[in-house]
Amino acid sequence: METDEYLSTPHLKKYRWLPKTRKNAFLGHLLISVTIFIALAAIIYWGWFPGALFFGAGGIDGIKIVAAVDLVLGPMLMLIIYNPLKSIGKIIFDLCVIFSVQFGCLIAGVYVVYQERPVAVTYVDDKFYALKLKQFKKDEDRFFMESNLHPMKPEIFYVRLPEDAKSKATILVFYQTLKSDLTTRTALYEKMPLER
C-alpha cells in the first residue's frame, strides 16, 4: 500500500507538509485550483463581461478556458506525476514543474480572455454592439479607446445620429460607401448617460 511505504520513507518526519498519497496531493491541488478559479471567474463575470455581455460577448468561453487550465490541467498533472516515494529533491522538482506549467498556461489563458473582452458597448441606430479593442483599426480610434477605457469593465457609448431621416440615411450611406463601420467611428462617440 502506498501509504505504508510512504510512512517508512525518511523524509516523512522532516517534511510533514508533503501529501502522504497521490490522491491527497491531487485533492489538495484541486482545492487550491478551485479557490483561484472562483477568484478569476468573479473577475470575468463582474468585471470583464458584466451583465448580458457574459452570455452575448464570450464570457462563457472565457470561463471554459480558465476552467480547463486551472481545474483540469494542474490537478491532473499532480495526479499523474506526484509520487511520495521519490526522494525529496525529485518531489520538489516535480512540484516546481507542475506549478510552473499550470501557472504559465493559466497566465496565457487569462491573457487570451482579457484580450477578447469587450472594451466598449456602442449604441448605434437602435442596436447595441459589443466591441473589442482590435476592432478599432485606425490609430486615432485606437488612441481614443485606449485613453478612455476602464481597465476592468467596458465603457458605454452611443453614436448620435440626426433625428431627420434624410440626414440619418445620408450618414449611414456615407460610411457604407467608405466601407467603414459606424460602430467604431470614435469621432462620433458620446458617453452614454446612465443616470437620470
Structural notes for this entry:
It is rod-shaped and about 85 Å long. It is built from 8 helices and 4 strands. With 196 residues, the protein is α+β, with helices and mostly antiparallel strands. Helix 3 (22-48) runs antiparallel to helix 5 (59-81). 59% of the residues lie in helices and 9% in strands. A hairpin with a 2-residue loop joins strand 1 (120-124) and strand 2 (127-131). A 4-stranded mixed sheet has the order 2-1-3-4, with no helix packed on it. It has 2 domains: 2-116; 120-191, no CATH class. It has helices at residues 2-7, 11-14, 22-48, 53-56, 59-81, 88-116, 139-148, 165-177; strands spanning 120-124, 127-131, 155-159, 189-191.
List the helices and strands and how they pair.
Layout: H1 2-7, H2 11-14, H3 22-48, H4 53-56, H5 59-81, H6 88-116, E1 120-124, E2 127-131, H7 139-148, E3 155-159, H8 165-177, E4 189-191
Parallel strand pairs: 1-3
Antiparallel strand pairs: 1-2, 3-4
